Amino acid sequence: MSKPFKFKQFTVEQDRCAMKIGTDGVLLGAWVPIDENVNSILDIGTGTGVIALMVAQRSNAEIIDALEIDTEAYEEAVDNFETSPWGDRLFCYHASFQEFFEEIDDQYDVLISNPPFYSEDYKSKDAQRDMARFEDALPFEHLLVGASKLLSDTGQLAIVIPYKEEKRVVGIAEQVGLFPKKITRVRGNSTSEIKRSLLLFGFDQTACEIDELIIENSRHAYTQEYINLTKDFYIKM
């Protein structure tokens, strides 16, 4: 059984969820820009609910919705929302993203997703974990088409993906009228390869801000930039 993950202002139970809390989700939840005008947020494929909880802590948004297709993860996210300080603002739908964006007329100021992105052929014998890990459960095309329908005119989509997929995803986004506004490329340390890309999209075509984030100087010795980004959440930061 997985232990609860304790953050500074909330605790996340994760024993029923296939994908446990990891650096990708926490990075995205801390990195996504949220200004005081943001009133509605949707976390797509919420898993444990950690990203939705992070943005609830960071914002005054009245509506923070989440979406989860897996029954066990959905139930766990609901429990995590209800025991948090922001239970009155958090709501989880048990549905696929495809069902959701075809049926819902609402629009959101911010969409966030830490999508499944292991598109290789390898599959394990654990169907629940595979659904959480593999891109065929939520292809980038579906994510971006749905986002283009659900975003308000000035809305923004934030996702984390493997760096090797960055060019392909930016190309798909442009086909549905979404353009990169900010890209942060993530390295484990200064000598390692870029592993992840944090991408922010919007409808307006402006100059894209591109930067880099290095997580560690050496093993468990975190960079000041990473500490600054995550210190409101991690207890040991």
Write a brief structural summary.
This protein has 237 residues and is α/β, with parallel strands linked by helices. It has helices at residues 23-31, 50-58, 71-82, 97-103, 127-133, 140-150, 166-175, 224-230, and strands spanning 5-6, 11-12, 40-44, 63-68, 90-94, 108-113, 151-162, 179-187, 194-202, 209-214, 216-218, 221-222. The chain is built from 8 helices and 12 strands.
Please characterize this protein's 3D structure.
The two termini are 26 Å apart. The strands form three sheets. Strands 5-4-3-6-7-9-8-10 form an eight-stranded mixed β-sheet. About 5% of the residues have low confidence. The protein has 237 residues and is an alpha/beta fold. Helix 1 runs parallel beside helix 2. Helices cover 30% and strands 28% of the residues. The longest helix has 12 residues. A hairpin with a 2-residue loop joins strand 11 and strand 12. It has eight helices and twelve strands.
